[in-house]
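explain this:

___
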Amino acid sequence: MSPVSRSNCFADAFEDTRLRLLAAGVFGHGRPAYLAFTAIGRGEGVTTSALGSAAALARHGEHGPVLVIDGSPVGTRMAEVLALPQLPVAHDAGAEAVTAAVMGLSVPGLSILSLTAGPPALGDPNSHEWAGAWEALRGRFGSIVVDAGSLRSDGPRRWAGWVGATVLVIDTSRVTREALRGFVRERRQAGPVLAGFVLNKRRFHVPAALYRALT
């Protein structure tokens, strides 16, 4: 499948997610969306959820051009999914280098940026270079959607200070009660504040206990 077809398929698949984020007040009414997607573990669909939601946002163009960032620890997964030759750039390379690494995608108004690693936490003494790059990106794009990787790394916590909201992706075909309990404990201590969650691969009625565990 070509990169054009892949991007359009993602936009189609995540239109419902865009509508639910809009209904939840995560963005809308002229407000831009600065979102990070994360998950309890790896392989739960963070990359596809971030990419699909960004593509759906860009297709409607309500908030101007959209940037999707591969900010996971590896920084190459999103380009691999789209079959793109993009190489990641360091977050501290400076605003000019970071913005030059942005690549336009086939969905009008959608671009991608791959980073070698997530940025330092907001307020960290080493965050100066990224702060300049982040402001440059915010000035160029109406909305920014980030693949922050899983909570097994500290990436989601570092991204939480830069974006306005974090969305949890849950693979309902593999999530366990133990994993949810561990997540709830971590969230109470130092986890990112969640604006909502995406139940990925949902082929059955989700038990009420799952919703209670996440609220």
Observations:
- The two ends are 39 Å apart (CA to CA).
- The chain has one domain: 3-214.
- The longest strand covers residues 143-150.
- The domain at 3-214 is CATH 3.40.50.300 (Rossmann fold).
